[in-house]
Amino acid sequence: MALITCYECDRMASDQAAACPHCGAPIAEQPSPVQIQPRAAVSRSVGFWLGVGVLLFPMIFVWFLLRQGHSTASRVIGFAWLTLVVVGMASGDRNQGSPVATSGSQSPSVKVVAPAEPLREISAQHLAQAYDRNTVAADQQFKGKRFKVSGVVDSINTDLFGNPYVTLRGGVNQFMEPQFELDEAHANYAAGLQAGMRISLVCLGRGDVAKTPMSKDCVPIN
């Protein structure tokens, strides 16, 4: 309940009453008080041409100070003014461009790590048979991919660059045994191998040469 002024007798009366208790004028006909809505604060940014004018005016002023007849103190004051204007405009642009962080609205990003693909395991004989049957299908399975291969050592050799490699039994014939190149870090391992030993390697397939499977970057696992 609120008190209002009667428009007939200018006395105070309740806005819930049907009529003024002093003069009898009906309260319902009283004009309702006008509520003034608060004006929203408007944030005005500096216009382009206004910013250019504010920036160029100190520069022109300083340029005049560089001419003969002006003291050193006036030149120092002019340059200080120009510096303050440039710094002020730069800080204003940086404040407008920075986003406003809201607490609780953003959650930290979580990196999802894909599970590692299990290594394909195959024998040297089955690898040679796969390339003998269909080179294209075998490349899709092994070329550019790491896999585990097991077999019996047939020979231990070095290529033209001195890198050691071994051939494992299981090829279509004795001239097409699968070849597995070791890196220089495992040269001592290759030096200790003998024909007839069973070994296991993790290698990166690199295709074939005339249906002879070729692999590189092999690492022993036994």
List the helices and strands and how they pair.
Elements: E1 3-5, E2 12-14, H1 48-65, H2 72-97, E3 120-123, H3 124-133, H4 135-142, E4 146-158, E5 164-168, E6 179-182, H5 187-191, E7 198-209, E8 212-220
Parallel strand pairs: 3-4, 6-8
Antiparallel strand pairs: 1-2, 4-5, 4-7, 5-6, 7-8
Helix pairs in contact: 1-2, 3-4
Summed up, what is this model?
The chain has 222 residues and is an alpha+beta fold. The chain is built from five helices and eight strands. A hairpin with a 6-residue loop joins strand 1 (3-5) and strand 2 (12-14).
Description:
It contains 5 helices and 8 strands. The chain has helices spanning 48-65, 72-97, 124-133, 135-142, 187-191; strands at residues 3-5, 12-14, 120-123, 146-158, 164-168, 179-182, 198-209, 212-220. It has a 5-stranded mixed barrel with strand order 4-5-6-8-7. Strands 1-2 form a two-stranded antiparallel ribbon. Helix 3 (124-133) packs across helix 4 (135-142).
Query: Which runs of at least 5 residues are low in confidence (pLDDT < 50)?
Result: none
Distance between the termini: 93 Å
Chain-averaged pLDDT: 77
* Element pattern in H and E: EEHHEHHEEEHEE
Question: Which features characterize this protein?
Answer:
single chain; 222 residues; alpha+beta; 5-stranded mixed β-barrel; two-stranded antiparallel ribbon
